[in-house]
Each structure stands twice: as structure tokens, then as C-alpha cells.
Amino acid sequence: MNADVLEIKTEQLLKTKKRSQLFDVWLRLKKSKAAIAGLLLIGIFIFMAILAPVLVSYEDDALKMNVRVRLQTPGSDHWFGTDELGRDIFARIVYGTRISLFVGIISVSIALTLGGTLGAIAGYYGGKIDNIIMRFLDVLLAVPAVLLAITIVAALGASMLNLMIAVGVSNIPGFARVVRAAVLSVKDQEFIEAAKAIGAKDHTIILRHVLPNSMAPIIVFATLKVATAIMATASLSFLGLGIQPPTPEWGSMLAGGRSYIRDHMYIVLYPGMAIVLTVLSLNLIGDGLRDALDPKLK
Amino acid sequence: MYHFLIKFIAVIKYEQIGGTVLKYIIRRLLLLLPVMLGVIFLVFFIISLTPGNVASMILGDGATDERIVELREEMGLNDPLIIQYGRYMGSLLRGDMGVSYADGRSVAGEIGQRFPNTFKLTITAIILSVLISIPIGVISATKQYSIFDNLGMILALIGISMPSFWIGLILIIAFSLNLGWFPSGGMSGVMSLILPAFTLAIASTASITRTTRSSMLEVIRQDYINTAKAKGVSKNKVITKHALRNALIPAITVIGLEFGVLLGGAVLTETVFSWPGIGRLMVQSIQRKDTPMVLGCIIVFTLSFSIVNLLIDILYAYLDPRIKENYK
Amino acid sequence: MKYKTKLTVYFAVILMCVSLMAFAGGGQDVQEQTNDELTVALSAGITSLDPQGHNDTKSEKVSFLVFNRLFKLNTDFKVVPDLAESWEQPSETEWLIKIKEGVMFHDGSEMTAEDVAFSLNRSKEMPKVQQVLSEVKSVDVVDKYTVKVTTNSAFAPFLYTLVHAGTSILPKAYIESGDEFANPVGSGPYVFTEWVSGDKVVVDKYDNYFDKNNMGQSSKITFKVIPEGTSRTIALETGEVDVIAEVQTIDKNKVSDNGELKLHEVPSTRLNFFEMNTEKAPFDNQLVRQAMNYAIDKEAIIIVALEGAGIQADSVLAPSFLGYKAGPYSYNPEKAKELFAQAGYPDGFEITITTSGDDRKRMAEVIQASLMDVGVTASIEMLEWGTFIDSAINGNFESLVLAWTSNPDPDATLTPRFFSGNINGMNFSRINDPKIDQMLKDGREELDLGQREKTYNEFHEYVMNQATMVPLFVNNILVGSNASLKGVELSPQGLWNIEKIHF
């Protein structure tokens, strides 16, 4: 058998494996009512985020102060009421969705890229490199994630970019560990051996063969981590260390509405619900995916 | 948990087994040292990224350039980071964390004054979590797919999805504003501890419940449980004697990890409830641009987290004999 | 049987943990509500225990209990003697002040003229209060109980300056001991006990207080910091605290409608303002500063910050002051845009508004929203109270939102706030204008009331044209207390004579 044939065979092996695996996962995921509910829910939020400008006006509804209609209880004019400056809470939540999802996804991407690279290298090469990377991760892991994020923002200053960096960096060790474990689990399988045998370069093997086949746990983990990242974003903004007013962010909306909770509970109720529902939907999907990928736990 | 603890203490008394555990503890302690050194360096490095000139910040805009240079020199800010770090470590070992930029008071003193409050809050929260979550997790597993199980799991999932500061606000509205049962903030006796501790406990309760349930399920399905059942051992006994012990191992790891989440949550919970702990101190210090205090707080947080994880690991070693084997 | 055992173990564990909880929560701070002790809620922590190391009304509340000054203000804002026994004026610039004999500091030593001279001289050097006695040339000891103060020139409001916390009399020996106010020693009706930064300050009654008519009435006073307005009101309702020094306006009716609580309201001299740093662009441009006066919607701020219950401010003092004159501005975004264009900023600019506290944050947000309409992008920087004041003094800001509570004489506000010598003091806008300095000097030295009024009239006009600030509003001060408390007194500066409050 010459090398070309071997390569083609390997490619085919990888493709069929991938496709059938994904399809199986979908079939199993479909059976879980919870996961479907989660998908629907997050679908609504994504829909809201995309269609935000169609639904409401950013300038006029979400940003512009209008003290004549401040602190209105929810009704037909303002579905979720208005806040202390007379801004429409629904409009702010809709635009807040954009921010939360954006920050959540970007910070997880940062974590995935940096952590994933570290994890893949550690797992693939093993030995001394693995040891060094793992000790470094131990250090990062020794600081509770939210506290690490707070420290980073405290040092760099409160802004959206710094917030994403902070939340991203605090999630590096988690991703590194998951990717490392995933790489370890496929590293010794025959198709990797095969790829090595045909002389593929290390990074090609990692990127084209190892990672695609160890994607499952990473996807689960990433889904769950977007949820945590959204929570962390809201937490930091609530403390005044994240997204700054007047940008409509759920956590900073809660911070602003805090003084009004006695008579205008809805000011903190709806943004809080938005956080809970988004995070919940991602957790439902993550759980569903995990069960679908690892049926024995079901 | 209680009888494990008793047994654990008993174990230490027996020299032979105790020796193994002791070896393990020493090894873990030795591993902890470089990690702590690394962590402090990491935090030190992050804090040093703070833009702006500390000296001119302290002195104000009116200060002359010479004075700024002088102060920088006095504070050792011109030295390379590693030297500053070494100096900081040196004083840290003597229990000196420097003085606050904001009011000139000793950082260690301030933290020492506040740490017990954070300790009270987090310990109460973790005890609450364990007390609630382990039984629910076990019952859920033994009655899988029952109404209790389904309801429990839905609640647990909602529990991990709620931001603690929001729960805190809602609890204040419900139990403090509407019902008037508890104070809404501050630290004034046992009553004032309940709402913040409960707020802080919710997320950990939810995730420990989930872990207990799933590891319990895994254990129940294993053969030796069936064997025990077949031998005619009563169901309750199987659960308590065989399954629970093995199922607790992953649960305990999660308790350790949750402690970290709890410490992060303490920053928010203390802020919402005006609880005078180091979490609130840290947030205040950030608003004060009080770098030494922020550094002190984060180091104390991290140290506590590491120590708890060390304790968890030791407990873990006792519960899971395989780990002990490695250190014989 | 087996089942029972398991249950027992479980209950034992619960019991153990509950008792642990009780131990963890209890131990200290279990407040037996003895009617002898008083708890007062403050909205921010004090910044210093050194009465000459701060100039803010929160720290002042503690300073006034632990220290005395030569004179004090009564609730009508009249000057009455405190440590001073008698005083006379040998000449226009000289004051002979005799202090009471037998005033004992908390450490048991007797107060002498030596301490008085030392303290007044120290006051002149302390950065945060240096402006208070800036007119004082020298302070000399005449005999054991008498000092002679010489002023630079005839100084009409001299006695008024001696009521400021910054002129508190400190024991010389204590300051020289280098304790740095870890355990401050004063002569006041209360002795310092404990300060947990950002959390609480505790003082105990001083039984040996010299003024037997004004002895402390409660055996212990705890100042508790509760930054969040709603929490403060709730704390009052639940009895956690007995007095709140600042009721947030939205909770006004909550306090007044509650039969167990009492709302005290008094018109104040508290001017809330938006101040611009005239040393930093774009606020170094007078046109921009004037434009800001047109751009900010004060009415909206009053609605949001005070639920509409405030008086719009149009100049640098409250209207009740001698020589007041309103500035020429009214809300007019179009005019503001025009002026910005004239000043060379047709497309607006970016600024940072620095402030501290929930109420002021809301004010800053309204200003931010107002400015958005005229093309100015503002970001808000929130600082902790003490740091905020420091930044204001040091000029580490572009613009800020703050309030100033005035003592009765106009000069007590205008000189600290506008005199060029008080840059790096309370002249936050850092305006340095010889004409302003001259007018202040004239006003200070003028003894004829009519002429003085005219001087201040011109001053208002000139300074509002300089537009170093946008005056926002003057508000009533709201204090809430337990209805069964006696002796709650208010002055235009808010809660007053705290030592008299008791159950």
C-alpha cells in the first residue's frame, strides 16, 4: 500500500467517523426535551440579538433619557417598564442580549484559543513540555476564576475589551485541561498512528486529526463556559468593573436599579431573568450534549 | 460526613496507615509551595500592569517631577519587577503586606480584622450546601426519574444558572423588605448571617447535588452493589454502606472546587449585603485604587482556596485507598 | 432499627453544624438592644480620624464627637463658644482668646494654650484644611489659657472659621508621639474606640467631659457605613440602626409614613454641582464651560436624584446667602451646540465624569444622557469616597459631581472654592484668576454690610461668567430616626449635636 492510498483511506475513515458521530449525537440530543427547550430558548435570545434594531431603537429606546416616563410599571407602552432615567427596560434587555452573547462568546474564544493551544501541546507531546504547562496551569487554577477576572480588570481598567480579556484568561486552565484530556484520549488511536506513519507534520496532525476527533467534550465544555462567562460579565458589571453605563448590560442594569427595588421591583426582576434564562438555556444544551455524547451517564 | 471525619482522625492515630497519609500530606504541602510562589508572582504581575504612575497618583497633579522621581525611588518602583516581587515575598513571610495607599493603615491588619467575617460566611455557606445537597443527590439517584428526582434536578439547574447578586437582591426583597424576617445587610449577629450565607450557598448546593446524583447513579449500577443486594443486604444499608462512600469521592472534589466559586461569590454577596469581609474590602480597595490592599486580598483568597483544596485532597486520599497506594 | 441509627447520625450532624453556625455567626456582635447605645448609619466611610486630615461632612460627624473647637455652630448656625471662655479684639487684626480651664483630654492631660496654638498652626499646614485659616498670620501663647491670633488684615468672618472641624484642638503631646491617629486623643464628649475602615466607627461616652451641660447622652455610639440608600432605610425600619444621616429621597415617604420612625427635614445650604477642571482640555476653554451650563438639564437631575423635590441652583451658593445673584444660563441644548462649535468643538468631545456614591452616580448618569444630546460623550468613573476627594483636591479628574455644604458666611465657601491659593485644596476647578482673588479679598475685609453685599453680587456675576461649574440644585436634608429617640437636632448641615441623641 503506498502512502497516497493510506492517506485517502485515513481521510475517509476520519470523515465517516466524524459524520456518523455528529449525526448520532444529534439523534440522541433530539430525544432530550430539556436540551430542545434550551435550544429554543437560546434561539430566541440569538434572534433577539440579531433583530434588535428591528425590534427597538438603540438611541431612542435603550439610551435616551426621558424623565417624563421614568419608573413606569410594565404595560402596553413599555413591556418591561422603564428605569430610573425613563429608558425602556425591554429595549435595554434586547440590546443587553447582544452584549452578553458577544462578550460571552468572545471571551470563551479567547480562552479556547489560548487554553486549547496549551492543552493540545501538553497532551500531544507529553513529557517535560506537558509538565511545565501543567504547573503553569496549576498556578492559574489556584486563583478562583471570578477573583482572577476581577484582579485583571482592576489592573487594566474597566472596559469591554478588558472584561473579555479578564474572563477569557480566567478560563484558560479549564480549556487547557479539557483539550489535553481529549487529545490524550485520541492520541494513541490507529488513525493518528496512520497519519504519523505517512509523515504528516505535528501541527497538521493536531489540527486536522487529533482535534476534530476530540471535539465532543470541548464543545460541551465551551457551551457550559459561555454560560459562566455571561454570568461573570454580569457579575463584574454589577460591581462596576465591567461594562460601563449607559451601555445596556444586564449586570449594570441591576446595579443601577438596586436603589429602586422596593417600589419598582421589575427594574431588577427582568434583567435578572434575562441572565437566568440565557445561562439556563446554555446549561440545558451543555447537559444535553454531554448526555448525548456519553450515553452511559444517562 | 461526620463519621468519616471521626474515622479520619482515628486513622491518623494508627501509625502505619497514618504514616502513609502523613507522607501524602507532606508531599502535597511541598507541591503547594511552588504553586503559591507562582500565584503570588502572577497576581503581582497582573497588578503591576495597572496603567498610570502610582507615585504621581499619590502625590497628585500638583507634584513636581523631582518629587515623583523621589517617591518612585523610595517605593522601589524603579526596580525590575522580579526584585520588587522578591522584596514583597520577603516581607510577606514576616506577615507584612505593606500599607494601604488610601489610609496608610497596615494591609495585614485590615485583612486580619476582616478575614474572620468572610470565613464565617463561606464556612456557613459550604456547610449549608453539603447538608442540603448530599441527601437530595442521594435520594434523587436512588429514585431516578421520580417526581422528586426531576424536580430536584430542574431546581439544581436553575440554581447554577442564577447569579448570586441577583438572588441576593430577590431575597432582600422577599425576606427583608416584605416579610421583615432578616436584616437586609451588615453584620449583626446570627440573623444577619442567614440571607448572605443562603445566597452564597445556592450555586454550590446545586452543583454538589448534581455531582452527588450522577456519581451515585454510576456507583449503584456497578456490579458489587448488585452483589450486595443479591446477598440480601437491605437497600438502605447498601446505599449508606457501599454506594454512598464511593459516590462521595467525586462529590468531595466538587466541594473543593465549589469553595473557589464560593470565594468569588463572596465578593458579590458581601457587596450586596454590606458584609464587612475581605470580598467587600477588595471591591472598595479597587475603587480606592489601593493596590497593596487589592494584592493582599487576592493573596489571602487564593491561600484559603489552596488550603481548602489541600484538606479536600487529604480527605480524598483517605476515602479512596488507590490514591494512598501511590504514596506508599 | 438500622434506619433509626442513620437518622440519628444525620440529625447529629445537622445539630453540630447548626451549633457551628450559631458559633460562627454569634460570638461577637450579638446586639442586645440596650437602650443606652446608639447606632447611626452613614452613607460612606469616614476618610480620616484626624480632624485636620479631612474636609467632609461624614468624617466631621465623628470628629465633632471626639474633638472640640474654640467655637461651634448651634442649630441656627449662630457661632457660640465651645472651648473659648471669652474673647476680645485689641485691634482689627488681633484676637485674644481665653479658653476654659480644666478641659481634660481623653488621656487625662489638661488642655492649655500651648495645645491651642499648636493645633491652629498645624491646621494651616494640613493640605485638606489649610484654606480654613489662610487669613491667620500667627498664633501665639499669651499665658497658660490665652492665645493671641493675628490675621493678615481685618477679617470679618474670623470667628466663623474657628467652627470648622479643621480647627479642632488636639493635644500637642499626642501628635508628637507619632501615633498617627491610630488611637486619636481628643477632648470631646466621646472617646474613640474602634475604626474598621469602610465598615464602622465606635466611640464611647467620655465621663470626664468638661461641658457638663452637653455631656454625651448615649453610652456608646456606633457609626455604621451603609453605602446603599435602600439598605439604609431598611436598616432603620428593622431597627438595626437608630438614625440615618441621609435618607435617600425615594424613601422619604417610607420613613414619614412609618409610625415607628420619624423623618426630619431641613432646608440646607448644600449645593450640588458639576465642576470642571479648568486646567484640562476642553474645560480650559471658557466657552466650553459656559456651553456646559446650557447643556445640562438640571430639571431632569432634580427629578431623577430627588424625585423632583429640590431647588434648582443658578449660582455658586444657595440663594439665601448675602450678595447672591443667579447666573445667566438656562437649559438650551441648541445654544450649547452653538457655543461648542464656536469654541472649536463642532463635533463634540469626550469627557470623564468622576464621582462617588449611588446618588451622585445617578446624577452623573443624567448629565451623561444630557450631554449625549449635544454630542458630548461622557464616561463615568466611580471612586470610593476618600479617593474621590483626594482626586478632586489633586486635580486628578476632568469633571466631577459633588456637593458643598456651606457655613453661614459666604466667605467660608467662596475663598476655599475659588481662591487661587486653594488650588490643591478645595478649589477643585483650579481657577487661577487675580480678579477673583481680589474680589474675595475685598469681600472678606469689607466690614460694611451693604458694600459687602455689592462685592459679592459682582463676584457671582463674574464667576458665573467664568463658569467653573454648573450649579445643579440645593436640596433639603432628610434625616430619619427611630421615633422614640430624643434629642435629634438638625442644622442646615444636617444631623447636628449627635451627642445629645438618646432613647
Q: How would you concisely characterize the structure shown here?
A:
The complex is a heterotrimer of chains A (298), B (328) and C (503). Chain A contains 13 helices and no strands.
Could you describe the 3D structure shown?
The complex is a heterotrimer of chains A (298), B (328) and C (503). Chain A is mainly alpha-helical. Chain A is 77% helix and 0% strand. Chain A contains 13 helices and no strands. Chain A has helices at residues 3-31, 33-55, 58-63, 89-125, 127-141, 145-156, 160-170, 172-187, 190-197, 202-213, 215-238, 250-257, 266-293. The longest helix of chain A has 37 residues, at 89-125. Chain A is elongated and about 75 Å long. With 328 residues, chain B is mostly helical. Chain B has one domain: MetI-like fold, CATH 1.10.3720.10. Chain B contains 14 helices and no strands. In chain B, α2 packs antiparallel against α13 (291-319) and α12 runs antiparallel to α13 (291-319). The longest helix of chain B is centred in the last third of the chain and has 38 residues, at 235-272. The radius of gyration of chain B is 24 Å and the shape is globular. By secondary structure, chain C is of the alpha+beta class. Chain C has a domain at 8-43 and 226-503: Dipeptide-binding Protein, Domain 3 (Dipeptide-binding Protein, domain 3), CATH 3.10.105.10. Helix content of chain C is 33%, strand content 24%. Chain C has helices spanning 2-25, 57-66, 113-125, 158-161, 172-176, 229-237, 252-256, 286-295, 298-306, 333-342, 358-373, 385-394, 410-418, 434-445, 449-466, and strands spanning 37-42, 71-73, 79-81, 84-91, 94-99, 136-143, 146-151, 190-196, 200-205, 220-225, 243-244, 261-276, 310-312, 350-355, 377-382, 399-405, 469-482, 489-491, 494-496. In chain C, strands 1, 8, 9, 10, 11, 12, 13, 14, 15, 16 and 17 form an 11-stranded mixed sheet that branches. In chain C, strands 4-5-7-6 form a 4-stranded antiparallel sheet, covered by helices on one side. A two-stranded antiparallel ribbon of chain C has the order 2-3. In chain C, α14 runs antiparallel to α15. Residues 1-5 and 19-33 of chain C have low confidence and may be disordered. Chains in contact: A-B, A-C, B-C.
